Amino acid sequence: MNRFVIPVVTAFALAGRLTIASPIPEDAKIAGFGVGSQAYTFNRFSVFEAIEKTAQAGGKLIEFFPGQKLSVEEPNVKWDHNSPDEVMQKVKDQLAKFKIRAVNYGVVGGRGEAEWRKIFEFAKKLDLYGITTESVGDLDIIEKLVKEFDIRVGIHEHGRRPDDPNYKVWDPNYVLSVVKDRDARIGACADTGHWATSGIKPLDGLRILKGRVISCHLKDRPEIGAQKPDTIYGTGVSDVAGMLDELKKQGFEGNISIEYENNWDHSMPDVAQCVGFIRGWGARRR
Questions:
Q1: Which residues of 116-148 are buried (b: 16+ CB within 10 A; e: fewer)?
Q2: Among 27, 84, 86, 230, which residue carries the largest CB count within 10 Å?
Q3: pLDDT tens digits, residue range 7-43?
């Protein structure tokens, strides 16, 4: 989209669905959603291996995180927004080899506007859909760059910290309060597992943030209100099918990242079953 038309359409985006930034293409979707992995699922492996494992699991997309080692051959090279162009090209080549689309980057934060600009430049070079952060204190800087680069930003949350009352992003009501008057491309990265840890039913969290869900770290958990390892979709109590129904109802256009924090060394088959669950959900709704 021509960047010069953004001021014309902003009012429409604010009034309804997020329609400004480039959408995730249809060929990168499963059951109507952009589905893949958060590379953190494979954090005991390299970026190259995470891309390959995502493809083996049947995913279409990958969300990178900062600091992962590049490859088995170059374990001392770290992948992040400071990576030189030659490293970026190697990652792009690996993505092309396995037909995986890079879609998001985070959780990441910047130390001032200069580093935030570097993060957005990195995202633009990779043609990313979004960036994920918890840096609500930097939203003035972030909003300016969102408008300049036309890239979405989702506010991520970890679990509630009873000993840290200043940590508020665990609460979807708080996240809504800090994004609702911002550019429509700023919203939430809904981590449904961390909501469950905090005692929030994930479906409730999605409903609170209706219209402001930028991306999703979709997780199933065996229990609400406790820190428990992730489970394969449909085997826990998080109502993954209900969450997919809700996201579809909301017109969600972002990425669903399977961030599977369990069975770390051998999680690819589990991730494949999660992908299969989404495929099955889609088939049942045709």
A1: bbebbebbeebebbbbbbbbeebbebbbebbbe
A2: 230
A3: 333 333 333 333 346 689 999 999 999 999 999 999 9
